[in-house]
């Protein structure tokens, strides 16, 4: 995505570490899903308000999983109010859907006041919403009893997952909807991040079965959601999802469900990673090079407080080195790449069990740039202030234009939270 010259120029202009996002890549990924009636961006992947605007301009809708994310969506120009729309078809096309397994008290007030359509992952959530706002439009997020993910931590289905209403409890959920006067918009399922086609057949089959149950209970619905979870090839040779094939499988499920219900159904998808992961890179500077016995380490100025995925999941990110002094890079040799944090797990090259992995990299020197690739999803959004490190800047590339979309946080801003606490 980045040429060496761009990397050097960006690092010099904005300093490192630096998040870089590429607008054309995001637009292209969004366009590749246009067969779906709604592409609902799961903003947890990267909620920068400028990216939300870009996606809105491209026709996407948005998902929110916290009051903060919903406020971002509103700030980006998406509208609330659809929970009170006159028809279910309008509610199905809501700009913002609030998805969760519970509503804290403040958020319950908020979704009702803003009229946000709510995707309910627990029956208690339905009861609380129904008691407060009869007539509110809701989706049911169902747990089909199985799940799948690139790591145990990203599997969101099955009995070890807290997510969604258990499939066998659908009848109870529907009874609560009927008793409380809530309006059912649709059924939603998200079983994890990193789908493969094998699982997809099973998911689509489960969705059709659940629609059959809704019909049998005497209720109707306007939409089904395929959830998110579309993977991207993080490693060379990993397969790339074919959006047309993916759509085809879900469209077949939609048709079956339409036949059961006797009317058209809206088909939605809710990707995060697929839309933004490959649009992002993290640029860091090499600040030390050392050898611990037999293991060569390249130490850079970004840590797991910036990019948490390797430490959290053993996630693999491609990386490449750009020479800082213009020298030709030597042939690649294995090395570990680590950050500045005061913690042994602050290593970007590690397996799922935390074991250090060596990566083939040209001999690095202090002042070189390291580009960590495919970090547009769950990179900046999972960053923390660990070791009192301020959040770093983010820029958006759009052809020749470079636009800062987040300035670097200041330590004083962190301290102010504590110094002004009383
Ligand atoms: N919809 C729901 C209800 C979700 O829970 C998620 C992700 C998505 C959509 C979007 O999934 P995606 O298309 O991005 O795979 N931090 C982890 C991923 C956690 C995802 C949680 N939910 C990672 O870095 O891989």
TrEMBL record:
<keyword id="KW-0663">Pyridoxal phosphate</keyword>
<feature type="modified residue" description="N6-(pyridoxal phosphate)lysine">
    <location>
        <position position="44"/>
    </location>
</feature>
<comment type="pathway">
    <text>Amino-acid biosynthesis; L-lysine biosynthesis via DAP pathway; L-lysine from DL-2,6-diaminopimelate: step 1/1.</text>
</comment>
<feature type="domain" description="Orn/DAP/Arg decarboxylase 2 N-terminal">
    <location>
        <begin position="35"/>
        <end position="277"/>
    </location>
</feature>
<dbReference type="InterPro" id="IPR022653">
    <property type="entry name" value="De-COase2_pyr-phos_BS"/>
</dbReference>
<dbReference type="InterPro" id="IPR022644">
    <property type="entry name" value="De-COase2_N"/>
</dbReference>
<keyword id="KW-0210">Decarboxylase</keyword>
<feature type="active site" description="Proton donor">
    <location>
        <position position="342"/>
    </location>
</feature>
<dbReference type="InterPro" id="IPR009006">
    <property type="entry name" value="Ala_racemase/Decarboxylase_C"/>
</dbReference>
<comment type="similarity">
    <text>Belongs to the Orn/Lys/Arg decarboxylase class-II family. LysA subfamily.</text>
</comment>
<feature type="binding site">
    <location>
        <position position="229"/>
    </location>
    <ligand>
        <name>pyridoxal 5'-phosphate</name>
    </ligand>
</feature>
<feature type="binding site">
    <location>
        <position position="378"/>
    </location>
    <ligand>
        <name>substrate</name>
    </ligand>
</feature>
<feature type="binding site">
    <location>
        <position position="343"/>
    </location>
    <ligand>
        <name>substrate</name>
    </ligand>
</feature>
<feature type="binding site">
    <location>
        <position position="309"/>
    </location>
    <ligand>
        <name>substrate</name>
    </ligand>
</feature>
<dbReference type="Pfam" id="PF02784">
    <property type="entry name" value="Orn_Arg_deC_N"/>
</dbReference>
<comment type="subunit">
    <text>Homodimer.</text>
</comment>
<dbReference type="InterPro" id="IPR000183">
    <property type="entry name" value="Orn/DAP/Arg_de-COase"/>
</dbReference>
<feature type="binding site">
    <location>
        <position position="313"/>
    </location>
    <ligand>
        <name>substrate</name>
    </ligand>
</feature>
<keyword id="KW-0028">Amino-acid biosynthesis</keyword>
<dbReference type="InterPro" id="IPR029066">
    <property type="entry name" value="PLP-binding_barrel"/>
</dbReference>
<feature type="binding site">
    <location>
        <begin position="270"/>
        <end position="273"/>
    </location>
    <ligand>
        <name>pyridoxal 5'-phosphate</name>
    </ligand>
</feature>
<comment type="function">
    <text>Specifically catalyzes the decarboxylation of meso-diaminopimelate (meso-DAP) to L-lysine.</text>
</comment>
<keyword id="KW-0456">Lyase</keyword>
<keyword id="KW-0457">Lysine biosynthesis</keyword>
<dbReference type="InterPro" id="IPR022657">
    <property type="entry name" value="De-COase2_CS"/>
</dbReference>
<feature type="binding site">
    <location>
        <position position="378"/>
    </location>
    <ligand>
        <name>pyridoxal 5'-phosphate</name>
    </ligand>
</feature>
<feature type="binding site">
    <location>
        <position position="273"/>
    </location>
    <ligand>
        <name>substrate</name>
    </ligand>
</feature>
<protein>
    <recommendedName>
        <fullName>Diaminopimelate decarboxylase</fullName>
        <ecNumber>4.1.1.20</ecNumber>
    </recommendedName>
</protein>
<dbReference type="GO" id="GO:0008836">
    <property type="term" value="F:diaminopimelate decarboxylase activity"/>
</dbReference>
<dbReference type="GO" id="GO:0030170">
    <property type="term" value="F:pyridoxal phosphate binding"/>
</dbReference>
<dbReference type="InterPro" id="IPR002986">
    <property type="entry name" value="DAP_deCOOHase_LysA"/>
</dbReference>
<dbReference type="GO" id="GO:0009089">
    <property type="term" value="P:lysine biosynthetic process via diaminopimelate"/>
</dbReference>
């Amino acid at each position: 995505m980045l040429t060496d010259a761009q990397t050097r120029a960006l690092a010099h202009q904005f300093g490192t570490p630096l998040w870089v996002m590429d607008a054309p890549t995001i637009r292209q990924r969004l366009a590749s899903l246009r067969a779906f009636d709604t592409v609902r961006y799961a903003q947890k992947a990267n909620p920068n308000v400028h990216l939300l605007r870009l996606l809105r301009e491209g026709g996407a809708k948005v998902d929110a999983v916290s009051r903060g994310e919903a406020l971002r969506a509103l700030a980006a120009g998406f509208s609330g109010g659809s929970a009170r729309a006159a028809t279910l078809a309008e509610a199905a096309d809501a700009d913002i859907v609030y998805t969760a397994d519970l509503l804290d008290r403040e958020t319950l007030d908020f979704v009702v006041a803003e009229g946000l359509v709510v995707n309910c992952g627990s029956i208690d959530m339905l009861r609380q919403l129904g008691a407060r706002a009869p007539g509110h439009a809701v989706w049911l997020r169902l747990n089909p009893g199985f799940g799948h993910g690139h790591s145990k931590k990203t599997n969101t289905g099955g009995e070890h997952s807290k997510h969604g209403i258990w499939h066998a409890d659908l009848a109870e959920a529907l009874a609560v909807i009927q008793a409380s006067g809530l309006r059912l918009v649709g059924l939603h399922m998200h079983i994890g991040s990193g789908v493969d086609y094998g699982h997809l057949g099973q998911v689509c089959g489960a969705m059709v079965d659940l629609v059959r149950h809704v019909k049998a209970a005497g209720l109707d619905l306007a939409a089904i959601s395929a959830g998110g979870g579309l993977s991207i090839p993080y490693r060379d040779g990993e397969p790339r999802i074919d959006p047309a094939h993916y759509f085809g499988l879900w469209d077949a499920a939609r048709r079956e469900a339409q036949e059961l219900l006797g009317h058209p159904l809206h088909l939605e998808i809710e990707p995060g990673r697929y839309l933004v992961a490959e649009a992002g890179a993290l640029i860091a500077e090499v600040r030390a090079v050392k050898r611990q016995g037999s293991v060569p380490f390249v130490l850079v100025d970004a840590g797991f407080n910036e990019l948490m995925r390797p430490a959290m999941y053993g996630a693999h990110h491609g990386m490449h080195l750009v020479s800082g002094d213009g020298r030709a890079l030597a042939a690649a040799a294995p090395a570990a790449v680590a950050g500045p944090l005061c913690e042994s797990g602050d290593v970007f090259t590690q397996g799922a069990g935390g074991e250090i992995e060596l990566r083939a990299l040209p001999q690095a020197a202090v002042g070189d740039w390291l580009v960590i690739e495919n970090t547009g999803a769950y990179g900046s959004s999972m960053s923390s202030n660990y070791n009192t490190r301020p959040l770093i800047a983010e820029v958006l590339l759009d052809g020749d234009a470079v636009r800062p979309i987040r300035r670097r946080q200041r330590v004083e801003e962190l301290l102010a939270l504590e110094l002004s606490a009383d």
